[in-house]
Amino acid sequence: MTQPPADLIFTNARVYTANSAQPWAEAIAVTGGRLTAVGSTAEVATLADANTEIRDLNGAFLMPGLTDVHNHHFLAGKEELYELHVPGGAHLDEILNAVRDHAASLPADTWVVGGPWASDRLSEINSVEALTRLNEAAGGRPVMLSDDSHHNRWVNSRAMEIAGVEAGQHGVVLDAEGRATGVLLEAAGLPVARAQQAAGALTPEQERRSAQRGIEILNSFGVTAFQDAGVSTHILEALRSLDAAGEMNSWVVSSLLINDEIFGFEAIGDDLVFDGERFRTEHHRPDFVKIFLDGVPPTRTGAFIEPYLPDEVHGSHFHGDTLLDPAELTDWLRRVADAGLSAKIHCTGDASVHAVLNAVETLRGEGYTEPRYQVAHGQFVHPDDISRFGPLGVSADISPSSGYPDRSLRRSVRCCPASAPTRCSRTERSSTLARQWPAAPTGRCPHHPTRGRAFTDSSPARIPAVFTPAPSGWSRPSP
Do 47 and 132 belong together in one domain? Predict the structure, then answer.
């Protein structure tokens, strides 16, 4: 059969193909949005006709698009477009100055929303004195600032008053005298998030623009396919709208939230995960659910087999807790598997990882062979569990920034079980790499943060000028 003429040819390039049998080439051809030829300039030129667009790259480097298996593109776009940005690693004075400057530009009573404050600045902000200064900087406006994990918040007195947050509620951090400092751990921040959304929610067009901006940023780093690790209906609709208009320049897999410990989204669980099919489009696959099984180690909300190092608040025998018990976890995974959905499960402690592997082992034994399972983050895995990933078909969705020896890892090591650091990020088989952006800012880790195996496609993206063939030996996931 004669090959049809190409719509687009890139020529005179240094093309890295990611194919070990043909690692380098000079030109590629695209027809109907699909890669149809890779070879020398002369070979590919035979596919041109009078209507072919030819782009001479003048020796520029060209490679397959990158795949990011764990990010929160909508949140990143929203934060850049509509929220206060706190400088990375800012100390208390710098945080307050940023709040003061931003607040001065807002109308009275408008919420000050932004972040991230660094988790290792907790000791600086975790006092009534710091809260008083935050109140002053805001000029009477409510304030909600997320930390760099996006799991915890620092809010001011006005925000707590509006949301009905008080000392004594679970996750509300207190000083030695029992007074709330404004630091809210995990789900304790949800009432504030919901109060802020009720007062100043984005319009549908702003939500659409947030998703679009997140994709634009990913594209700027060469990412042409990604998995969003936690969505609800407003994000699904933004993606559906973008793709329907031909404005979504990426493949997207979304993970529909079963539980929500940090975002404050309205639709979760049964109301969301069995309704995602109506948002499916050519480039968007709502094929996963997302479960939060624990929190994050620096605030001792990750779940560990051995106890955390002792402190005055938690004592000597505190392990952290999983957010679902084993029966609940297995039941949810079984229900969504029956609906044809795979699952990404947030696990930062080794006890939560162990629980996921046990649940998947049960389901595999019941004959559920098709669903894909991803342990998200997986910084700490018990040595006995590492060899279980491959046989059970579980991917370790590793976030390099969580295991790289910088501020993020040091925060965890200061409080985790004594043996935990020796187990950090050792899940090498059946693993993927994911940025976890915006919780892990771009450019933070020197190792490449985006390329992984959990979302690959042997057919190139149906987007003009995007070159995304799967490397040799990688398999195509079920649609």
Answer: no
Q: What is the DSSP letter of 118?
A: P
CATH code for the domain of 287: 3.20.20.140
Question: Are 89 and 232 within one domain?
Answer: no
Instruction: State how far the Cα of 72 lies from the Cα of 76, in Å rounded to an integer.
Output: 6
CA distance 460 to 29: 12
- Among positive and negative, which fits the CA dihedral 52, 57, 63, 67? negative
Local structure of 313: helix, strand or coil: coil
> Tens digit of pLDDT per residue, the chain (479 long)?
478 999 999 999 999 999 999 999 999 999 998 999 999 999 999 999 999 999 999 999 999 999 999 999 999 999 999 999 999 889 999 999 999 999 999 999 999 999 999 988 999 999 999 999 999 999 999 999 999 989 999 999 999 999 999 999 999 999 999 999 999 999 999 999 999 999 988 999 999 999 999 999 999 999 999 999 999 999 999 999 999 999 999 999 999 999 998 888 989 999 999 999 999 999 999 999 999 999 988 889 999 999 998 888 788 899 999 999 999 999 999 999 999 999 999 999 999 999 999 999 999 999 999 999 999 998 899 999 999 999 999 999 987 665 544 555 555 556 677 666 555 544 444 445 555 556 555 543 333 333 332 332 222 222 223 333 333 333 333 33
Alpha-carbon distance of 186 to 169, in angstroms, equals 12
CB environment 370-404: b (16+ within 10 A), e (fewer): ebbbbbbbbbbbbeebbebbeebebbbbbbbbbbb
Alpha-carbon distance 144 to 212, whole Å?
A: 24
**Tokens at 410, concatenated:** 């040091």
Calculate the CA dihedral of residues 335, 290, 362, 274 and round it to 10 degrees.
10
- CA-to-CA dists, residue 111 to 83, 141, 235, angstroms: 10, 6, 22
Residue 48 · residue 94 · CB < 8 Å: no
From CA 423, how far away is CA 416, in angstroms rounded?
11
Between the alpha carbon of residue 127 and those of residues 154, 173, 180, 265, the distances in Å are 11, 9, 8, 29
Residues 6+ apart with CB under 8 A from 31: 4, 5, 6, 7, 8, 47
Note down the domain range covering 35.
Answer: 1-63+461-479
d(C-alpha 451, C-alpha 225), whole Å: 10
Backbone dihedral region for residue 324 (phi beyond 0: left; psi -120 to 50: alpha; all else: beta): beta
Q: Are residues 240 and 257 in the same domain?
A: yes
d(CA 227, CA 242) in angstroms, rounded, equals 16
Same domain? For 328 and 373 the reply is yes
The amino acid at residue 368 is Y
CB of 416 within 8 A of CB of 380?
yes
